Amino acid sequence: MEINWVVIGVVILLIVVLVVLTIRKNLKEKKKLENLLNNDFKKAEKVDVDAEDSANEK
Q1: I need a labelling partner for 5 at 20 to 30 A (CA). Which of 14, 22, 34, 53 fits?
Q2: What is the predicted pLDDT for the residue at 51?
Q3: Contacts (Cβ under 8 Å, ≥6 apart) of 56
Q4: Is there a contact between 49 and 56 (Cβ–Cβ < 8 Å)?
Q5: Are 56 and 50 in contact (CB under 8 A)?
Q6: Pick from 32, 52, 48: which is nearest to 40 by CA?
Q7: What is the CA radius of gyration of the chain?
Q8: Domain boundaries in the chain?
Q9: Which contiguous run of DSSP H or E holds residue 21?
Q10: Tens of pLDDT along the chain (58 residues)?
Q11: Residues 43, 45, 49, CA angle at the centre, nearest 5°?
């Protein structure tokens, strides 16, 4: 029984390509998620201070 090196080579090549593509996609998704989480917070609203309101005095 002979080993068919061409078929084994093609299968190994396809596995390597699949692993590389999966890693690249995961890195892109990780970057998107990181940007989303870093920019997804509610900014505090600025409160206008009324100069005539005595409660705002220090």
Answers
A1: 22
A2: 65
A3: 49, 50
A4: yes
A5: yes
A6: 32
A7: 29
A8: 8-34
A9: helix 5-39
A10: 788 999 999 999 999 999 999 999 999 999 999 998 888 777 667 777 666 766 655 5
A11: 150
